[in-house]
Amino acid sequence: MYIKISYISSKDYNSKIYFTFVKKLYDDRMMKELVIMVAIGIMLSTCIAERSIKFDPFWEGEVTLIENATFSITAHTSGKIYEIKSTTALGALDASSKKGGFNYTVDDRWYEQYGSLLVDSIAGVKNDGMDGWQYWVNYPDEPLPWVGVDKYELEEGDTVDFFYGGFGINPDVASMLIRIHVHVKKDELPPSVEFIKPSGGIYLLDREIMSLPGFSIVLGKINVEVNAFDNESGIKKSHFMLMMNL
What we know:
Elements: H1 13-52, E1 59-66, E2 70-74, E3 81-85, H2 89-100, E4 104-107, H3 111-114, E5 118-122, E6 125-126, E7 132-137, E8 159-165, E9 176-185, E10 192-197, E11 201-204, E12 207-211, E13 216-219, E14 225-229
Parallel strand pairs: 1-9, 11-13
Antiparallel strand pairs: 2-3, 4-5, 5-6, 7-8, 8-9, 10-14, 11-12
């Protein structure tokens, strides 16, 4: 960048040298400022471009969660087993992990302090420094949840995003995204129970000594054996009541 100085006399040699020197300093300073401005512009453009990149979800799909059902999860940091409601955000992640064929882990080191679990890895991608797993329900229409992932109760039609990155990011610019579309239903089917023992016979002290058609007679103690299952909400234990008429 050069500025024409037309009033410098060619005869005034010292004056010409002075103004030429001043003009060169001015040109050097302007060039440095221009280079700095271009560099800043490139950096800003790169940052904006990186922030505007949208990644395809690692997994996206629908899951059906059953009201009043629970599932068990073991915190790898302590080995403790927790019973979690299936209709929570963590329940949605658990269901999607089984459907999508990926794993996840939870950390309970702050459970006593905050009363909730922390998802610290999904599909082998672990929390690292300031980067980690977050979740958002019905982004962007609803605000970021401020309760633990195992405490947030979902409703029919909710969408849960689990996304990876640093503080202040959202699902649109996360480097990894799990998007779960949730259906919630009631468990309307009764459980199925099949008696294995006793089953049609006379039992003496836990041993069958004679077969009988359709009913059993038990003498003394017996260990009851059954096959019990519920395809929707599952069965954790079975209780039996013995009615005796003397």
